[in-house]
Amino acid sequence: MKQAVLCVLLCVIAPSCWMSRSSTNEPLDLRLIQAVKPGMSATEVVRLLGAPSFVVELEPRKAYLYEHDNSKTAGLWLVLFLFANTDVRSDRTWIFFDENDKVTHIGKTLAADRAEYSLPWENLYDELPQSEAGSRK
Amino acid sequence: MRFQRHVALAGLLAVASSTACVQFVYERVNLEEPIRDAAWKPLRPGADLQQCLDELGAPFRVQTVTKREFELIYRWYQQSEWGLRVSYNFSRGLGVSYNFNNAWADIPALRLRFGTDCRLLDVTKGLLGDFVGPNGRRRELRRFGEAKQRVR
């Protein structure tokens, strides 16, 4: 009897679940980012990583942004009730140049592949490893 | 009498929900991993830009304030909320829908201000709306709109 009830419940709930995923730009390649070193020219950086997503002028400096977003959504639709969760995380790298267009500083966060499917009552960030909880490297 | 009222109410809900014109929505949006206080509180004025980037990762935004200063802005957002969605189709191809829910709270953010020598001037924790101009805010709200749209 229990099995029959579970089976009916599964048949009712299963068609009302969905998952979707979307992303922006290509994922950033850690090896390529690590190849960028202070002193490199802007031309060399662009040759290595391609065109940046965004350029900020910080007179007399400038900074290039390379960015990739990953979004995962999971949901459950039970007639009157809709439960859904969207988790968006990014790979992001900022490269700072001096007035001679030479790299001075590099900041990176590679978190896009940590985006998860979950339901809204789950807290995804309670279980971050200690090394990731503070910094988003 | 009480039983009949319950049956009538259940019938009404069934009719409303069968056409999906009324829906209770519980949704959560997570945008980026939060920056814990333990990561930014040890940063002191005079810290080098590279040290800050190593501790906190890449910021959401880099912007100039004056010719002598620039800022790194970090932001993150985790919020769940209940809402009520009502929609109705008048005729084929013509319908309306409306969502009643709490306004999205403003977005927590962290601002690190640097001088031209790339040394940290100060760190402020606050709301994104206080740190970025109208263009940045519009861009951010559009991203939230897109994230919420994926749910629907």
Report what the structure shows.
The complex is a heterodimer of chains A (137) and B (152). Chain A is an alpha+beta fold and 137 residues long. Chain A has a single domain, classed as Beta-lactamase Inhibitory Protein, Chain:B, domain 1, CATH 3.30.1450. Chain A is built from 4 helices and 5 strands. Chain A has helices spanning 2-13, 30-34, 42-49, 130-133; strands spanning 17-24, 54-58, 61-78, 81-97, 103-110. Chain B is an alpha+beta fold. Chain B has one domain. In chain B, the strands form 2 sheets. Chain B has a 4-stranded antiparallel β-sheet. A 3-stranded antiparallel β-sheet of chain B has the order 1-4-5. The longest helix of chain B is centred in the last third of the chain and has 18 residues, at 134-151. The radius of gyration of chain B is 23 Å and the shape is elongated. The mean pLDDT of chain B is 78. At the A-B interface, strand 2, strand 3, strand 4 and strand 5 of A face strand 1, helix 3, strand 2, strand 4 and helix 5 of B. Strand 4 (81-97) of chain A pairs parallel with strand 1 of chain B.
Topology overview:
The complex is a heterodimer of chains A (137) and B (152).
Chain A: H1 2-13, E1 17-24, H2 30-34, H3 42-49, E2 54-58, E3 61-78, E4 81-97, E5 103-110, H4 130-133
Antiparallel strand pairs in A: 1-3, 2-3, 3-4, 4-5
Chain B: H1 2-18, E1 22-31, H2 37-40, H3 49-56, E2 61-66, E3 69-75, E4 77-91, E5 94-101, E6 108-115, E7 120-127, H4 128-131, H5 134-151
Antiparallel strand pairs in B: 1-4, 2-3, 3-6, 4-5, 6-7
Provide a quick synopsis of the model.
The complex is a heterodimer of chains A (137) and B (152). With 137 residues, chain A is α+β, with helices and mostly antiparallel strands.
